[in-house]
Structures are given as structure tokens and as C-alpha cells.
Known about the structure:
heterodimer; A: alpha/beta; seven-stranded parallel beta sheet; two-stranded parallel sheet; about 20% strand; globular; B: alpha/beta; seven-stranded mixed beta sheet; two-stranded antiparallel sheet
Amino acid sequence: VGRRVLITGLDTFWGGRMALALESDPEFEMILGMATRDPSVALERTDFVHADQTYSIVSRIVRATRPDTIVHTFLVTDSTKVSGRALHEINVIGTMNMLAAAGQAGSPVRQVVVKSSTLVYGASSTDPAWFSEEATRAGRPSTRVERSLVEVEELVRDFAEDNPSTVVSLLRFANVLGTDIVTPISTNLSHPFCPSIAGFDPLLQFVEEDDVVRALEHVTRRRIPGIYNVAGSGKLPWSEIADLCGTRLLPLPPVSTAIAAAPLIRARLIEFPPEIRALLRFGRGVDTSRIASTGFEHRYTTAGAVDSFIRAVRLRRSVGRAPASYTYEHEVEQFFRRSPSAIRPVQS
Amino acid sequence: MAPTRTALQLEHRAALVPLPGIEQGMDRAPRLQDVDEWGRSERARKIARRLYSPIYKNWFRVTWEGLEKIPEKGGALLVCNHAAAIPSDAPVIMHGIEEELGRPVYGMADFFFRTVPWVGTLWSRTGGVPAHPDNALRLLHDQGQLALVFPEGTKGPSKTYKDKYQLRRFGRGGFVEIAMRAGVPVIPIVCIGAEESMPIVFRLPSIAKALGVPYMPVTANMLMLGPLGIVGYFPSKFKLRVLDPVTFDVPSGQERYSKSRIMDEAEGIRAHMQETIYEMLRERRSVWFG
């Protein structure tokens, strides 16, 4: 029997990418996306339902469509995009509702895949050079994003304990760089100046955006349970990354860093959200031998991810910003999926 | 869906590689610096060695005994006694082994270094690694490197001059456990001369607390040389002796080892080192000339 997948956050970068990746495989008989806005990628056969941020109707959707797998990509890891309240609603309450739906009596859900982040490890002076999945963070999370993600992981852990027959896969991704994704770090690196903290040159680790999708696909396809770090091998000093990207470091003072950064953030010269402040001081690395042991191979190293990013930036600079051409049109998409006139491949 | 890189692209990328001799990842992405995953840069080390060489040769006049006991390849955990307000023993050992054996030494030290701007970065680029058990295990077992630790921790350099050459407690014996888990020998090194290079007359604990530093020393160097004494060492003669490697007859890779065994081994190594210190001090005629 084919698999039926429910993807949360279809309108987000990762939800859309994940649906695209699964569509080409007939083994996935149903792909259903939930999102608050229209999808931003052209999807052939993925079904789509509008839902509010907290998924209050997710239980109904699960009962009605009977997915065997939920891929939870709707987790915000960038605090510059949403308000603090929305962040909590999306990450914590959203996950809670999703897990409640997956764990309801008679639930058809056999696997839950959660896209978390290495932000849960934090960044501090007492960190090991490489975090293993078992490692605990040095102190209590001090930023909103980290706090909410730690809470999300606790919910997921409880769910896994209460539902031993459900495969729970939790992937922690390092900071992402790639051809399309926009993050505070990628924005900084594509500006003429990017922030650094004077006297510190931390070693950072990145994962390329294709590897993120491939890893999600990998654990979904093979129903691999457990917690896994996903990150390109190796670490690069921030100064070298800036050099590779052709941007100049703008050193902020090591004390009162946030105060000094505030006017620059306001002037939109730099992005400097709380979750990258400690990172630009102490860096972070995660050990990826566990996901490698499941047969997953990263296509990109950290240096490769930086290279992939800067090549895309160079191309955009030369030809102008690549047009984000796709606009979701509800009637058109419904026509292709529902109309008796449209000939659809027969689902086996 | 995501197109894989074509051979042509890969070739093109290889042609972009600007500097020879820099480790390339599997995707052959270009790099500009030679900083490794620990933050150590061989280029930075080379500069550091060039600058440090006159101090090593002409100021401390370092001599070694038993350097051949340090293996030319494979992991080994070097342990040494620790002294002087700003420890002078770590750079001497790292410099000496790198010059003589031509292999890198990673000096493991307190996390505190990482929090100090510039100092922390410089320390990391010249081979310093935070003393975390996971770091030590990866260096020794996975990468077969030499790691240098000071089991006394900050208790060694923070002791005042009246306690000179009296080994402090060897932590909780963690270094033995790491060596057991990594399956590498412990090679004790005894260093004579560091104690007199920057002796502490007294400490200011309240100032240390206020500044958030592990200890705040007032050294003889400061009292005699003024501000220059903050970083200026006395030219004591350095003598180092490498003791026989200690191996443990236990399987590597275990999560836990017998605590009593660990404490016994650590205490055995400590006793041997303390005895050797006394032995070398008996032979020493002068602090300045050896």
C-alpha cells in the first residue's frame, strides 16, 4: 500500500521542498499539506488545506485523511520573521496540537518526523567541539527560539514515550546555507559588511539546503526512529566564511555587543537576532556519525554549503534577483486535482 | 529533483582552489585558511614557533630527556605538572615536541580561555583546545593525535611559591578514564623550571571574583619588574623529562570504568611524577643554570 503523508507548514521553505521531493515518488499515494498561507512552490499533486497557526483542526484532518506519516516542518528557527508570541504559538502550541492529533485514539499515524535545529544545544564557552545527540546544553536557553525548540523537543520526547509503536524521527539541523534559503546569516553574508564580535573568530558548521530535504526524505522513506544531527562535515572560521563570500567583517565590541548592534540592526545594515549572538562568539559543531550510520550521506561539507550559497549569490548579482515566479491559484490547482476532464495517472 | 553537480562543475571548482596544501572536503569546496576543526592553524603555529624559538632556546634554554618515548604516530595523552602564574610549561612542551617530532600537540586547557577576546582566538589558532572529555576522546581515539593535559588544572599554576613543586590533586582522575576509553597510553612529563619563571607571592581572591577570572596572582615578577612583570618571565633553566608510557590493560570504548581503578592509576602516576620531581631537584645545582 502506498503511503499517506501529511506535511505541516507547506507554505514554508521546507514544507514546500519536502512535498516536491515526495511528489515524484508514486509510493507516496497521498501528500497533503497544511499551511497558513498559499504554497510558494508549484506542486503537481499535493493537496492543500488552509489552517490556522495552531492547527486546531489538525485532529479532524487526521481523522478524515488517515495519514500514516506526519512531517512536521512548521517550526520557526529565525526570530526575525515573527513576533515572540507567534513564535511560541507556532512552535510549541502547533507541535502540541500536531502530536495530540497523531496520538488520538485509533490514530492511523505510524511515523512522526520533526524538523528541529541544533539551536537546542545553544552555544557557550563550556561546549564540546562536537555535540553528540545525547549531549545536554550548558545552561538554560536564553533566547525565545531556543526556549521554544527545547520545549518542542520535550513534547516530542514525551510523545515517543507514550506511543512506543509510532516511529518518531527528530532531526536537528545545523545553520542552513544554500542556493535559495534566506536566513539572518545568509542575509549578513550577502551584504558588503557582516557582523562579528571583536576578538572572537568562532568555528561554524553549516548544512546545505538540499541535504536538509534529503535527510528528511531519508528518515521518512526508511521510517528511521531516533534523534539525529544533520550538518556538513568540518567547521570554518567566521572570518574565512566572510572572506569566501566577499564581505567585510564589522567587529562589534565584545562587551555591550547587543547595545552596539542595535542602531545597525535598526538601520538594516546587519541582522543580529539573539540566537546568533552566542554563536558568533563561541561557534557550534555537531557530530553527525549517527545519521551516517543509518546510511545517509551528506552531499555537501560545511565549506561546500558556503560555496553553494556564494555561487547562487554571484549568479543573482549578475542577472538580477531570480524571479520568484510561482503564485498559487486555488481554482487552477483544484481543477487539475479534481476535474473529471483532467486525466490523472492512476494510483497503484 | 535537486540536480547533482556535474563533473564539469566539479572540475571548475577544483580549478578555483586558491591555495595548495589545504585540506579539501569531499566536495572539494575552496578554502582560504588552514584552520582545522579544532581551530588550530599550522600557519599560525609556524609563526608562533618562529617567535617563540628565541625564548625557548635562549631564555629558558630547554633541555629534554626521554623524548623518544613519545610515539611518532598514534594517539597519546601527555600529562605534565603545571606551574607559573601564566603557565610557561604548556608552550614549552608544545613547541619542543612540534620542533623535535614534527607532529602537532593539542594543548587542552580551561574553558576560561575561550571567553577572553583575542586571547581565546590566538590560543585556539595555536593549538589550544577546551578541556572537554569529548574533545579529548575525539583527538586521541578518532584522530590519533597528541593531547597535552595538566591534571592539576588551575590548582597548579595558582599555588603560591611556598608550595612549589608540590603536585596538587589530579582532579578526579578524568585523564586516566579518557586514556582508557580512547585506548591510548598516558605519557607523564615532568617539568622543572616553570615554578621559578613566574612565582606567585600572594593571590587576590576578591579581585579574581570581581573580574571573573580563575585566580588573580601577584607575582615576584610584578613586584620586581613592575608592569613588565605581568608578562615577563624570569630566565629559569627548563629541564623536562619524559617518563615511561603508562598503558592500561582494559578494553577501550567502555562507557564506564572502575572508579577505584581510575583513582589508583591516577595516584600511581602522580606519585611517580612527584618522585621524579624530587629526583630532578636533587640533581639541580642552580635555578638559573640547571
